[in-house]
């Protein structure tokens, strides 16, 4: 009998060979692994890529347990570990491209991903074409003979567009193109990448996997076809993580289900409250019809989380600053996925430097929220007071006009 997903979060990576009789796999720190005989050394060398102690950079039992858990949860053949999500993205791409190649990158990608394409890949002779996240079947028109990678991020950073991953993946595979997905928003559990045609699923495990805003960590889970190359190329580029960080990632998995469900419940309540606010033009929460690609979220995802955006009807930076500066429960900070609530503002003109083909068609300020695990009534009250400060500046501006 197959185990349910909730049970899987508790049992994954807890094989007795990693736990050695205790509940959690212990933290095993090591650089040098010593061998008592030539035969032992030979055996480790032959099996160094298969969860066998060989050298610290290849991993310890703590890393092996975390990798096994991530592979089981996302459904691939193996998991490579990186010191952050950006490292996971850049090294996954570098593992499969060379000078003269071309990649297709979603225009709503994480900002460091764009910088990597424009500043590093370009220098290496790899060309990037950005595409609209809602392009659908039109992606075929952008494929070139030298296209090696189709990179997806769904929902998209900041503006939250949900992509039609199965359609895009199917077209890519018709052209023997590798499909990579930044699967951080779904935490690898609310969207099953390999069931929808993805070849390599990448996460900033810094966020929901760890869940406590205290570790930098990246993962890339690959299908059997691409696992060996991803593993070895990433190893050659020196990618490894602290066993302590791997342990905290593994520990975060145990509460992932309950945390995500509470984040999702809280965020949907806040999102629906925002829909009733006169200051708000629309809400970009994948679970709501006002979010681009909502139909794909309903079809492909099994749940949500705490991250979404909403757009104000106007853009007035002074008023936006007043809203942000007095928040009690929403802190301003990058990243997300921890237990705390966060808030950031993006003025429409800021997208001019972030987008090339998918500039958003709204004129008001976009506010991105990460709704944490606080009492949702306190969060709504915090936002309500923020709107009061915001409106006071709007009225002042109008009275001076």
TrEMBL record:
GO molecular function: lyase activity
InterPro entries assigned to the protein according to its UniProt record, in alphabetical order: Cys/Met-Metab_PyrdxlP-dep_enz, Cys_b_lyase_bac, Cys_met_metab_PP, PyrdxlP-dep_Trfase, PyrdxlP-dep_Trfase_major, PyrdxlP-dep_Trfase_small
Record key words, sorted: Lyase, Pyridoxal phosphate
Pfam families noted in UniProt: Cys_Met_Meta_PP (PF01053)
Reactions performed catalytically: L,L-cystathionine + H2O = L-homocysteine + pyruvate + NH4(+); an S-substituted L-cysteine + H2O = a thiol + pyruvate + NH4(+)
Enzyme Commission number(s) from the entry: 4.4.1.8
Gene3D superfamilies (UniProt xref): Aspartate Aminotransferase, domain 1, Type I PLP-dependent aspartate aminotransferase-like (Major domain)
Required cofactor names: pyridoxal 5'-phosphate
Pathway(s): Amino-acid biosynthesis; L-methionine biosynthesis via de novo pathway; L-homocysteine from L-cystathionine: step 1/1
Record-stated family: Belongs to the trans-sulfuration enzymes family.
The protein's name in its UniProt record: Cystathionine beta-lyase
């Amino acid at each position: 009998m197959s185990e349910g997903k909730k049970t899987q979060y508790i049992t994954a990576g807890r094989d007795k060979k990693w736990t050695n009789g205790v509940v959690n796999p212990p933290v095993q720190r090591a650089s040098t692994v010593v061998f008592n005989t030539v035969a032992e050394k030979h055996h480790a060398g032959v099996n160094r890529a298969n969860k066998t102690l060989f050298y610290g950079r290849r991993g310890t039992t703590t890393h092996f347990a975390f990798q096994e858990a991530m592979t089981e949860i996302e459904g691939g053949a193996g998991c490579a570990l990186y010191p952050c999500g950006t490292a996971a993205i850049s090294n996954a791409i570098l593992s499969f491209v060379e000078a003269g190649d071309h990649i297709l990158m979603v225009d709503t990608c994480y900002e460091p991903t764009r910088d990597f394409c424009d500043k590093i890949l370009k220098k290496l002779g790899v060309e990037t074409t950005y595409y609209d996240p809602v392009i659908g079947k039109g992606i075929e028109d952008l494929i070139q003979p030298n296209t090696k990678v189709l990179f997806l991020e769904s929902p998209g950073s900041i503006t939250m567009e949900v992509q039609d991953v199965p359609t895009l993946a199917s077209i890519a595979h018709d052209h023997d193109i590798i499909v990579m997905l930044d699967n951080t928003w779904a935490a690898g559990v609310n969207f099953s990448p390999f069931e929808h045609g993805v070849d390599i699923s990448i996460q900033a495990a810094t966020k929901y996997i760890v869940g406590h805003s205290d570790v930098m960590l990246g993962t890339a889970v690959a299908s059997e076809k691409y696992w060996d190359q991803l593993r070895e190329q990433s190893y050659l580029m020196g990618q490894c993580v602290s066993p302590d960080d791997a342990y905290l990632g593994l520990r975060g998995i145990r509460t992932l289900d309950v945390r995500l469900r509470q984040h999702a419940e809280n965020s949907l309540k806040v999102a629906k409250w925002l829909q009733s606010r006169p200051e708000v033009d629309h809400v970009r929460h994948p679970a709501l019809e006002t979010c681009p690609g909502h139909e794909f979220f309903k079809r492909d995802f099994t749940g949500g989380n705490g991250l979404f955006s909403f757009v104000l009807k106007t853009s007035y930076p002074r008023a936006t600053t007043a809203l942000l500066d007095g928040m009690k429960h929403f802190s301003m900070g990058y990243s997300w996925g921890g237990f705390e609530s966060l808030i950031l503002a993006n003025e429409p003109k800021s997208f001019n430097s972030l987008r090339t083909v998918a500039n958003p068609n709204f004129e008001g300020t976009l506010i991105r929220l990460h709704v944490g695990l606080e009492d949702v009534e306190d969060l709504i009250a915090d936002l309500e007071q923020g709107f009061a400060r915001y409106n006071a500046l709007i009225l002042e501006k109008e009275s001076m006009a």
